[in-house]
Amino acid sequence: MTEANRRQTVLSGMRPTGRLHLGHYHGVLKNWARLQSEYDCFFFVADWHALTTDYGDAEQLSEHVIDMAIDWLATGIDPQAATLFVQSQVREHAELHLLLSMTTPLSWLERVPSYKEQREKLAGKSLDTYGFLGYPLLQAADILVYGAEFVPVGADQVAHVELTREVARRFNHLHGRKVLAEPQALLTRFAKMPGLDGQKMSKSYHNAIELREAPEQVEKKIRTMPTDPARVRRSDPGDPGKCPAWQFHEVYSSEQTRQWARQGCVSAGIGCVECKRPLIDAVLEELEPIRKAASVYEEDPGAVRAILWAGAERARESAEATMQQARDAMGLSRWQSESPAPMR
Ligand code: TRP
Ligand code: SF4
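# iron/sulfur cluster complex -> structure
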């Protein structure tokens, strides 16, 4: 392939936190599915990143990794179009992380906004660890090892991409050659998926609908989700602006349905149960093919592992090319490539 028709590289990772929900689907996966047809995409399960905060539960980690991979595949992330793999299967991430750690000032890591925030938020855990402080540098290595041009992330991760650029610049400057490419954040401008309570959908808020959730359960969750508290009786008019279910209409309903709901709400012409019916139908319709596709993979975890294995192999090939240059720039390459002279 010539330089001119080489597709640009996109890379993104996700921490394995268990089964994915509608927030991941609308906020991330639909975007990835679009990107995979336009770019050379690397998508990986960031299991080492999970260990930086949750280092105590090996069983759960491996289950979360496979669950996440299944949900990716079930939502149309296509292993033919994109390279899907598990971070820990590509050791080059760790090697580049180590090399970058030699020249990254501690102060750069200490001032990453998520460092202080997360430490305070997860105050119950002992996060006075080297791994936790170094996690944004590991992320930098994830990105730089593939020479990724674009990194689709949410707003909370932009500072990490910025750090990655500084790390690359410093490396290139110190070693007098351009080995590492500076990536750009691709801000995900996809619909924010509200949770059942109107806050952002998140597993830790217990307001999520999982992609593989049973239909009865989905129906029940939407049926019982809160509405405008002013509508105590059916005859009380409501205000969609104060209603979490209305936010679902904004994601799922046509203009016409929204008009019907708004009108019915403010005039007390419809009840909340009625208003939610099209939402239940729309979510069930969206999830049905995902649940079906997932069940095929659930029954054949070997196939999932094979996909991840093949992806890791492809990823390694690309990462190796960068690593050879990085080792060379730091004076390590001789020891990698020459066979030892016979002993005298
Ligand atoms: N840190 C990201 C998160 O917590 C996940 C991640 C790890 C990532 N490595 C990455 C995202 C590289 C983009 C690029 O969500
Ligand atoms: Fe919400 Fe619809 Fe009930 Fe109005 S009628 S409060 S928009 S669920």
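# post-check
The longest strand covers residues 9-14.
The mean pLDDT is 94.
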